[in-house]
């Protein structure tokens, strides 16, 4: 398995879901018990809590374009990590920053994010 290619494909599909305003589609890339640490938000656990936060984020960026850029990654057995840059451009309240995802291989062989943290920063 080419983990770099898998993560790039993962990000591309995630970006498409975000850009069409599909919070449930974005949430599908995360485990049922995902832990999300988003800027300015309390830590939340669970796919539904993730989806609720992302519905709000997507309202702020309607019409913008979300992108991810893979910076670094690693894999050890059924656990992987991903470090990247993200941006939402083309809207007044655009944002940019960095993210770290911890992914777990699922029983069906797919990968889902179990822990996600991101910040807003100049990149």
Jot down its keywords.
123 residues; alpha+beta; Nuclear Transport Factor 2, Chain: A; 6-stranded mixed β-sheet; 29% helix; 42% strand
Integer tally of domains? 1
- Straight-line N-to-C gap: 30 Å
Count of distinct strands: 6
Order of helices and strands: HHEEHEEEE
Overall residue-averaged pLDDT value: 92
Beta-strand portion reads 35-45%
| Biggest β-sheet: strands ordered side by side in the sheet | 2-1-6-5-4-3
CATH topological fold name:
Nuclear Transport Factor 2, Chain: A
Uncertain runs:
none
CATH class: Alpha Beta
Please give the share of residues in helix. 25-40%
| Total of helices | 3
- Classification by helices and strands: alpha+beta
Q: Note the main sheet.
A: 6 strands, mixed
Overall description:
The chain has a single domain, classed as Nuclear Transport Factor 2, Chain: A. By secondary structure, the chain is an alpha+beta fold. Helix content is 29%, strand content 42%. A hairpin with a 5-residue loop joins strand 5 (95-105) and strand 6. A 6-stranded mixed sheet has the order 2-1-6-5-4-3, covered by helices on one side.
Topology:
Layout: H1 3-19, H2 23-27, E1 30-37, E2 44-45, H3 47-60, E3 65-76, E4 79-89, E5 95-105, E6 111-118
Parallel strand pairs: 1-6
Antiparallel strand pairs: 1-2, 3-4, 4-5, 5-6
Concise synopsis of the structure shown:
By secondary structure, this protein is α+β, with helices and mostly antiparallel strands.
């Amino acid at each position: 398995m080419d983990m770099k290619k898998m993560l790039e494909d993962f990000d591309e599909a995630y970006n498409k879901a975000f850009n069409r305003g599909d919070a449930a589609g974005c949430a599908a890339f995360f485990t049922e018990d995902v832990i999300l640490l988003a800027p300015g938000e309390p830590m939340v656990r669970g796919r539904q809590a993730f989806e609720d936060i992302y519905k709000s984020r997507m309202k702020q960026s309607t019409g913008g374009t979300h992108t991810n850029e893979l910076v670094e990654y690693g894999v050890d057995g059924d656990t992987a990590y991903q470090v990247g840059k993200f941006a939402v451009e083309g809207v007044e309240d655009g944002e940019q920053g960095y993210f770290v995802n911890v992914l777990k291989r699922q029983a069906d062989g797919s990968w889902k994010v179990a822990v996600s943290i991101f910040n807003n920063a100049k990149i």
